[in-house]
Amino acid sequence: MGALLPAIILVPLLSAAVVGYFRNTWSKTTISWVACSSVFASFAMVLVLLVQYLGSHEPIHAPLTSWGSMLQLGLVADSLSLWWMVVVTGCGFLIHVYSTGYMHDDPSFGRFMAKLNFFIFAMSLLVLADNFAGLLMGWANVGLASYMLIGFYIQKPSASNAAIKAFVMNILGEAGMIAGIAFMYYTFRTFKFDEVFEMAAKAPTVATTVCLLILVGAIAKSAQFPLHTWLPYAMEGPTPVSALIHAATMVTAGVYVVSRAWPLFSVSPDASMVVAWVGAIGALFGAVVAAGQNDIKRVLAFSTMSQIGYMFLGNGVGAYVAADFHFFTHAFFKAALFLCAGIVVHHYAGDQDIRKMGGLARKDKFATWTFGIGTLALIGIFPFAGFFSKDEILAAALHGHHYALFTVGVIAALMTAFYNVRLFSLVFLGQPYEEEAKVAPKRNASSKAHAHAHGHDAHGHDHHHETPAAMKWPVAILAGLSVVAGLLAFVGQPLHFLEPVFEGLEMHHGGPIDYPVAGIATAVALIGGGVSWYLYGPKGVLRQSERNLNAKPGPLLRMFYFDDLYEYIVIVPVKALADFAANIGDAKIIDGLINGLGSVAAGVGGMLRGLQDGYIRRYALTVFTGVTLMLLYFIFYV
Amino acid sequence: MPSATLNMYVALATVLFALGGIGVLVRRSPLAILMCVELMLNAANLLFVSFARLHGNMEGHIMAFLVITVAAAEVAIGLAIVVLLFRKKDHADVDDISELKN
User: In a designed cystine with A191, which of A133, A243, A510, A518 is the match (CB 3.0 to 4.6 A)?
Assistant: First the structure.
C-alpha cells in the first residue's frame, strides 16, 4: 500500500510528460482523456489510502531514500496530507474536466493540459512529503507550474509580465523559506518532520527563527500581506488556472506548511502571533480592496487573499483544525466561483469588466444559481459551507482571548459580504449595461446577437453555443460541495479526522456551531450585504456611478498603491543598478580595463619597436653598453 | 723622466682601446670602423706583450701572435664585405644598411 504514494505523485508527472510530448500529434479528445484520467487515477489512489487510513488510523509511509543519516526522504499519508490530497486531486480532477471544455478551442490545448498535470504532480509532492526537503522540492515546482500557467498565453506581454512578477515574488519568499529550512537543518541535522518536531520542543528560540523564515515563504506563496501584489496579476492566466492554483490549492501551500509545522509554531508564540496578524491584516485588506475592483477575476483574487488570511488567522491562534477546515470549504466554493466566472466571461466574449455586465440572471440560470451558492458560501451564511469553517476560526480567536484579532476578522466578514453582494448584483441583477451589450444569448438566436458577440476575447472562443457539459458538471459538483461540505461539522469532522496530527495540542471541543459567534458573524454579514444592496443593488443609489467606465481609479482600484510602492522601493533601484551595471560597469569599466590592457601592450610594443630600426651603430652601442655594465659589475661587486 | 713602468703600458693600451671603441661607434665609413677594430685588437696585443715582458715568459707573445692571425683573417672577410657594400650602394655609409628594420 505504501507503494501507492509515489504512484500518486508520478502518474500525473508521467502524464504531463507524455501529453507534452504528443501535444501536437494527439487529438484533443485523446489528450483530454489521458490528462483527466491520470488525475482521476491519483484521486482514486488517494481514496484508497483514505479508506485504509480510516481503517487502521496509522499513517502510511513510503520511505524513498535511505542515504544514511544525512538525508532520509520519503512520503507519508497521514490525516493532514490525506485531507489536503483529497482537495488537490479531487478539485484538480474537476478542473481538468472543466478545462477540456473551456480551453477546447485554444491551439495550445495539449500544452495546457500537460502543464496542468505537472502542477498536480508538484502539489502532490509538496503535500505528501514527510520531510522539509521534499516539501521544498514541491514548493519550488509549484512555483514553476504557476509561472508556466500564468504566462500560458505567450503572445500576451501582460501575461508574461504577470508570470515573472509572480515568480520573482515567490522566489523572495523561497529565499526566506530556504534560509529557515537550512537553519533548521543546521541545528537539528535532519529534515524529517517527526524528528524536527521532537527536537523543536527544547529549542524555542531556534523554532521562532525557523518559523519566521518559513513564514516569509508562506506569505509569498499564499499572497498574504505584504507580498500579495502578484496575485491580482496572476489572473492573466486562463480561468481554470486561477481556480486551481490561485484559489484552491497552490496558494494554500502556505497554510499547509504552517499547519504541518504546528509543533514549531506552538513553541514560539511570537511567531504564531505574527502569523495571526498577517492573516488578519490580509483578510481585511483583501476584503476592502475587493470592493473596489472592476475585473471579476480580480475581485475573486482579492477574495482569495482575504480568505487565506482567515486561514492564517486560524493557524496563528492555534486553531489549526479550523484553518484546515476553512481551506477545505474554501477550495470548493472558490473554485466554483472561479469556474462560474469563466462561464460568465464566456458570455461576454472574454471581457472581464463587471461594469459592463448586468442582468445575467435572466440569460443564464445555471451560472446565476451556482455563482449565488458560491457567494453565499463565501459570505458564510448558514447552512452553506463557509458558515461553519469561518465561524470556527472566529470562535477560536474569541476563545483564545484574541479580541483584536476577532474584531478584525469580524470587520473583514462584513466587508466580505459587502464586496460579494456588489459583485453578484453588478453581474447578475438589474439591467444590462446599455451601451455595449455584448451578451451572447445562450441559444443560437438572431443575427443581431451574432454581430455583437464576435469580439476580441482572451481565449479564442466562439460563443454561439451553450456552455458545454464539460464545464457545467464540475461547477455543479463544486457548488453542491459548497453546500454540503459544511455539514461535516455536524458529524464531528474534521476535528476527529485531523486530531491525530495535532496530538498534544489543546483544542476547543465545542459543538459545530458556536451560537454567539455565529450570531455576530451572520449579523455582520447581513449588515455588510445590506449596505452593499442599498448601494449597488438593482435599484442601488451608486449603481450608475459605479458603472461609469471613465471614472478615475481610486485608491481601492489601485490596491492602496502597493504596486506603486513596490515599484519605487524595489523595481526602480534594481533597474538603476542594472542600468549602471550594463552601461557603466560593463561598457566602461570592464571593457575599459580590457581595452586599456590592450593599449598598454600596444604602447609598449611601439616603444620596443623603436629599438629595431636596422641602425647598426645603435646595435653596436647596445653591445658595448652591455659589456661595459658587465665589466663594472664584475669589477666592483664580485 | 722615469723609466717605463707597467702602469704606463696598461694606460696606453686602455687609451688605445677606448679610442678604438669610440671610433667603432662613431665612424660612418665601414673601412674606418674596420681600422678602429684593428686598433682595439692592437691595444689588446700591447697588453699581452707587456705582461709577457713582466712575467718574463713567452705565453703573452704567443697569444699576441694568435690575435694577429685572427685579426688578419677577420680583416680579409671584412674588406670583402666592404667591397660588396660599395658595389651595391656606391657610397659606403653604415647607416644605410638598415634592411633588417622592423
Answer: A133
